[in-house]
Design the sequence.
């Protein structure tokens, strides 16, 4: 799992561990939480990705489930957004997902089974001011996953997307009370989601119960996007 050392990623990683799975998470130097195998990896580096997979395969065996969650933001209005800002976000969020998916696919093809789960965002579907780079990168995950679903489906490999809405994390905890109230006003369920609710969806998509589910975008957003 990429980006599994905090927030949503950590909740997903721990849920798989509780489920009895062997779990490895990537980090960029902060180490992994107790009980999880940590591998250093910057998803913007193909060499790092290859080395991380090799380390995981040596410790745990072939990767059967990939959760691509690593990502960054760099918010600013379009007219102020530099090309570097746009490219860095796309490279980390979208091209990074391509790198890990490509590396995982080889082993999954040999096993003739596998699950790929990409963590996107409701912003990919509805957009957001100041997040043209982030929204574009997260929307790209949908095309990536659906193309993979069509390419590799005959080998019992599925590819799906989770699109979280506003989730209680360190990032949302730092918002002003006014902004939190504004956000909740747009969410039909009138609350933030929890990281555990995202983890539950990931467990389902990785399970035997979801063997016939592929190319799906699963919004977990309290009704914010209404399945757009």
Sequence:
């Amino acid at each position: 799992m990429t980006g599994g050392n905090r927030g949503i990623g950590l909740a997903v990683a721990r849920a798989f561990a509780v489920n009895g799975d062997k779990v490895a998470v990537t980090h960029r130097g902060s180490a992994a939480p107790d009980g999880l195998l940590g591998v250093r990896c910057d998803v913007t580096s193909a060499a790092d990705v290859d080395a991380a997979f090799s380390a995981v395969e040596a410790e745990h065996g072939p990767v059967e489930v990939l959760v691509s969650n690593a990502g960054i933001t760099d918010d600013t209005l379009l007219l102020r957004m530099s090309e570097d800002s746009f490219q860095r976000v796309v490279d980390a969020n979208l091209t990074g997902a391509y790198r890990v998916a490509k590396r995982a696919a080889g082993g999954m093809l040999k096993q003739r089974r596998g699950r790929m789960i990409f963590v996107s965002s409701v912003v990919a579907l509805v957009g957001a001011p100041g997040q043209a780079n982030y929204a574009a990168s997260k929307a790209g995950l949908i095309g990536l996953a659906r193309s993979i679903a069509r390419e590799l489906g005959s080998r019992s490999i599925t590819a799906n997307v989770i699109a979280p809405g506003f989730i209680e994390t360190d990032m949302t905890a730092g918002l002003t009370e006014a902004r939190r109230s504004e956000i909740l006003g747009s969410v039909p369920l009138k609350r933030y989601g929890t990281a555990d609710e995202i983890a539950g969806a990931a467990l389902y998509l990785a399970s035997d119960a979801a063997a016939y589910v592929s190319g799906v975008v699963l919004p977990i957003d309290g009704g914010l996007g209404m399945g757009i």
Remarks:
- The mean pLDDT is 94.
- The longest strand covers residues 157-164.
- DSSP finds eight helices and six strands in the chain.
- Residues 86 and 133 are 5 Å apart (CA to CA).
